[in-house]
Design goal:
- With 702 residues, the chain is α/β, with parallel strands linked by helices.
- The chain has three domains: 245 residues, Alpha-Beta Barrel (TIM Barrel), CATH 3.20.20; 230 residues, Rossmann fold; 96 residues, Sandwich (Immunoglobulin-like).
- 28% of the residues lie in helices and 24% in strands.
- It has 18 helices and 31 strands.
- The chain has a nine-stranded mixed sheet with strand order 13-12-14-15-22-21-20-17-18, with helices on both faces. Strands 1-2-3-6-7-8-9-10 form an eight-stranded parallel barrel, surrounded by seven helices.
- Strand 2, helix 2 and strand 3 form a beta-alpha-beta unit.
- The longest helix has 28 residues.
C-alpha cells in the first residue's frame, strides 16, 4: 500500500487519463476470494483481452484492503494481505488505468447497532433487512451514511492507492426510504409527506422524484470533491442505468463526470439485442462529446440472479459488439475472483480484440444521421422503475421500425435540446413525448420553420414539463391538429382505413384497412393538411356474428402537412409505436417508416440492398465515413441468449457522395480487405460479400 503523499508528482495521472481507458475489465470480489482466487489468472486476463483499464473491488459493503475507517467492514478472510493493492500493482505494471469500486448499499450488524439511522425503512416503518441476505441491512442512500460515512471510505482509498477514479455501484438507493431523516428532510424541502405509491399523477411522487434527483446529484458532486481534494486529476464516477441521466442535474454531471458508465449488463426477457447500442445513442443524445462505457456481464441477466454462471459466447459477443457499433466502449464484469467456468474468456477476448482493431479508425470520427428519435427524458424522469417500461414502449416501437427499414438514426435528448443540435438532422421523431415544456415546443416549431421535419405520435405534448395535463396538444399549431377529445383506451378490435393515394399509404397491397391502436385520440385537422389514414369507428369483437363495422371511416388517424419553409410534419394520434413494440405487426412498421421517409423528403444518404436485419450506424469526418453494419439476423434477436451466429450473404451499400467530393476508396475493416465499389452519378455502390457479427465499411473521399 502506497501513500500518495509520499509519491512524486510523476505518479499522478493527467486530467484526460480516461481518453486512453477504452477497454475495461471489472473484477467484483466475493468475501472469501482473498484465500481462494488466483491473482495471476486475472493479470493474464488483462493481457488476453487487451484491457487498458480495470475496475476492482475496494470497499463499501466489504473492504478488500486493511481499512482504518470505523465500521468499515473488512473481509474476515483478508489476514495480513491486501487483495485490492495486489491487483492495483499488477494492473499498473501493465500500464493500465485503475478505478476502485465501492458498494454502499448494505451494512453489517456492528454498523447497524452503532448507527441505526443509516438503515433504510419501508413504508410500514420496518427497518429493511437485505432482501437476498437478511443477516445485513439495506442503507438509506439519502442520509448520513452516504453523506458522512462513505466520504471517509472514498478518501482513504484515494489517499492510499494509485488509482485514477472511484466508481460506485448500487449507490442510488432502492426506492423511497421512510426513515425519520428522509421524512424530515423531504417535508422541509417540499411540504409533502413521503409518497406511499409510485403514482406519476400524484404531486407528492413528483416532488419526491425531484428531491431525490437533487440529493443524488449533490452526492455525485460531494464525492467527486472528496476525490479531487486528494488527487486533482482523479474523479468519482457514478454507475448509471440506461435512463439515469434523466435523474440528475446535467450541468453538474457535465462538470464532475468526464465519462459515463452505463450499467445495462445484458438482455432481460423479451428484449432485442439492439438494446445494447441504444444505450450509446442515449448517452450521446445528452453528452455527444463525452466517452460512454457499456458494462457487459458474462452471465445471464435474469431475475434468478445466477451471478456466477456463464451465458453463451455469441450472446456475450453480440452485447459487447452492438454497444461498440454505437460508440460505447467495452467493459466486461465478472462476479467472484474464482473461475470455475472459463467459457467466457475467449468470447470477451475476441470482442475486445475487434474493438482494438476498429478503434484507430472509429476514434477519429463522429456519429451522424439524417434522422433522430427524441429521447423523452422530460417524460421519463417522472416515472418509477415499475412504470418506465410502459412509458418507453412507443420509443422502442419506432426504434425497431427504423432498424427494420435499415435507416440510420440517432437519439436526441429533449433535456439537452438546442437549435444547433436539432439542425444536425432532417427529421425528428416524437414517438410519445408526453411531457414537453412550452420552450421545447417552441424550439421544435422553429426547427420546422427552418426546414426541418417532425413525425409525432400518441399523446406527444399533451402534458407540461411537470407532468400536468394540458387541455390541448401544445404542438397542435405546428402539426395542424386540434384535439377534440383526449386519448381513450384500451380499445379492442380497432382499425384504421386508407383514404386516397399518398406516399405514406403505399406498399400495403390490396389492404383497404389495417389494425389500429389500443389508445386513440380524436383530432380535427387544419385546412392545409391531408388525412390519408382514417379511423374506423368502433364495433364489437364478440359475438363473432357482430364483428363488422357499422359506419364508414371517419376522423383523422394520420395528419400530414407540408410547410412553407420546406419542412414536413406527420401526426399519428394513437399509440402506433407502443402497439408495434408489443404485437410486432408489419403494417405498423411500414406505416411508421413510410411517414418518416415522406417527412425526410429526399433519398436517404445511406441505403441498403440485401436480405438481412441490420443495426446500422454511420460515422464521419472530413476525409470520409464509416458505416457500421451489425448483423441482427438471428432467431434469438428478440430474446436471448443467442446460440450461434447466422451470417448473412451479399449486401449492397449505396452512399451519396458529398457535393464537391469524389469517391476514392472503400475498405472492409473487419474482413481487412478492399471492397468492390462502382460510382453511379453522385452515388457509390459498395459490395459487401457477407457479414458474420459485424462489418465496418470505411469510405474515403477524394
Amino acid at each position: 500500500m502506497d501513500d500518495v503523499n509520499a509519491q512524486s508528482s510523476s505518479h499522478l495521472r493527467q486530467s484526460n487519463w480516461y481518453k486512453s481507458a477504452t477497454r475495461w475489465t471489472q473484477l467484483t470480489l466475493a468475501e472469501d476470494d482473498p484465500v481462494k482466487y488466483d491473482p495471476a489468472f486475472w493479470i493474464d486476463v488483462f493481457k488476453r483481452t487487451k484491457s487498458n483499464a480495470t475496475c476492482l473491488s475496494a470497499g463499501g459493503y466489504v473492504a478488500y484492503y486493511p481499512s482504518k475507517v470505523q465500521y468499515h467492514y473488512v473481509s474476515k478472510f483478508i489476514g495480513d494481505t491486501d487483495p485490492f493493492g495486489t491487483l492495483v500493482d499488477g494492473a499498473r505494471k501493465l500500464n493500465m488505468h485503475v478505478m476502485a469500486r465501492v458498494d454502499p448499499h448494505a451494512i453489517h450488524q456492528d454498523a447497524a447497532d452503532a448507527h441505526p439511522e443509516w438503515i433504510a425503512v419501508d413504508k410500514h416503518g420496518n427497518k429493511r433487512r437485505h432482501w437476498a441476505y437478511p443477516d445485513v441491512w439495506v442503507t438509506c442512500a439519502y442520509g448520513d451514511y452516504n453523506q458522512q460515512f462513505m466520504p471517509q471510505v472514498i478518501s482513504e482509498i484515494t489517499r492510499n492507492y494509485d488509482i485514477d477514479a472511484v466508481f460506485a455501484n448500487r449507490w442510488q438507493g432502492h426506492g423511497v426510504c421512510y426513515c425519520q431523516s428522509c421524512k424530515t428532510r423531504f417535508k422541509a424541502a417540499s411540504g409533502f409527506d413521503l409518497p406511499q405509491t409510485a403514482d406519476v399523477e400524484a404531486p407528492e411522487w413528483l416532488a419526491w422524484s425531484a428531491w431525490r434527483r437533487q440529493v443524488l446529484t449533490k452526492l455525485v458532486v460531494d464525492w467527486d470533491d472528496v476525490v479531487k481534494a486528494i488527487k486533482p486529476n482523479a474523479s468519482f464516477i457514478p454507475n448509471m442505468g440506461g435512463v439515469s441521466l434523466a435523474e440528475f442535474d446535467l450541468s453538474l454531471i457535465e462538470k464532475h463526470c468526464p465519462f459515463l458508465v452505463v450499467d445495462d449488463q445484458g438482455r432481460k426477457g423479451t428484449e432485442a439485442i439492439w438494446m445494447a447500442g441504444r444505450n450509446g445513442k442515449r448517452m450521446r443524445a445528452t453528452f455527444p462529446e463525452r466517452p460512454a462505457i457499456l458494462i457487459t456481464s458474462i452471465g445471464p441477466e435474469v431475475k434468478y440472479r445466477w451471478k456466477d454462471a456463464v451465458t453463451t459466447g455469441p450472446e456475450i459477443q453480440a452485447w459487447i459488439t452492438n454497444g461498440v457499433t454505437h460508440g460505447l466502449l467495452p467493459w466486461f464484469t465478472k462476479f467472484n475472483g474464482v473461475v470455475p467456468d472459463q467459457r467466457w474468456v475467449e468470447p470477451v477476448a475476441q470482442s475486445f480484440a475487434l474493438h482494438a482493431r476498429l478503434e484507430p479508425v472509429l476514434a477519429k470520427m463522429t456519429p451522424t444521421a439524417e434522422i433522430a428519435l427524441l429521447d423523452p427524458a422530460t417524460t421519463l424522469r417522472h416515472h418509477s422503475h415499475e412504470t418506465r417500461a410502459a412509458a418507453e414502449a412507443d420509443d422502442l416501437g419506432f426504434y425497431q421500425a427504423l432498424i427494420e427499414a435499415k435507416l440510420p438514426f440517432e437519439l436526441v435528448s429533449d433535456q439537452a435540446m438546442t437549435p444547433t443540435m436539432l439542425d444536425r438532422f432532417k427529421v425528428i421523431i416524437l414517438a410519445n413525448a408526453t411531457c414537453l415544456s412550452d420552450e421545447q415546443c417552441a424550439m421544435l416549431t422553429a426547427y420546422v420553420g427552418r426546414g426541418g421535419s417532425v413525425v409525432a405520435a400518441n399523446e406527444t405534448s399533451t402534458r407540461d414539463q411537470g407532468n400536468q395535463p394540458r387541455n390541448a396538444i401544445a404542438l397542435g399549431d405546428l402539426l395542424g391538429v386540434q384535439m377534440t377529445s383526449p386519448a381513450r383506451g384500451p380499445v379492442q378490435n380497432s382499425y384504421v382505413s386508407f383514404s386516397g393515394h399518398h406516399p405514406i399509404t403505399e406498399g400495403f397491397g390490396d389492404a383497404a384497412r389495417i389494425s389500429g391502436g389500443t389508445r386513440m385520440m380524436a383530432v380535427e385537422p387544419a385546412a392545409d393538411t391531408v388525412s390519408p389514414v382514417l379511423y374506423v369507428p368502433d364495433f364489437p369483437d364478440l359475438p363473432m356474428e357482430e364483428v363488422y363495422p357499422r359506419e364508414d371511416p371517419k376522423g383523422s388517424a394520420l395528419v400530414a402537412r407540408e410547410h412553407d419553409g420546406g419542412g414536413r410534419t406527420v401526426y399519428i394520434p394513437w399509440n402506433i409505436g407502443a402497439i408495434f413494440n408489443e404485437v410486432q405487426t408489419p403494417d405498423h412498421s411500414r406505416l411508421m417508416t413510410n411517414a418518416i421517409r415522406w417527412a425526410l423528403n429526399r433519398r436517404p444518404s445511406v441505403e441498403f440492398e440485401g436480405r438481412s436485419v441490420l443495426d446500422v450506424a454511420v460515422r464521419e469526418n472530413a476525409d470520409g465515413l464509416a458505416v457500421m453494419l451489425f448483423n441482427l439476423t438471428n432467431p434469438m434477436m428478440m430474446h436471448g441468449p443467442i446460440r450461434d451466429v447466422f451470417p448473412v450473404g451479399e449486401q449492397t451499400l449505396d452512399i451519396a457522395v458529398p457535393q464537391g467530393r469524389t469517391f476514392k476508396s472503400a475498405r472492409l475493416l473487419v474482413d481487412a480487405a478492399d471492397a468492390t465499389a462502382t460510382v453511379h452519378g453522385d452515388r457509390v455502390r459498395i459490395k459487401i460479400p457477407g457479414i458474420d457479427v459485424l462489418e465496418a465499411v470505411h469510405v474515403v473521399w477524394g
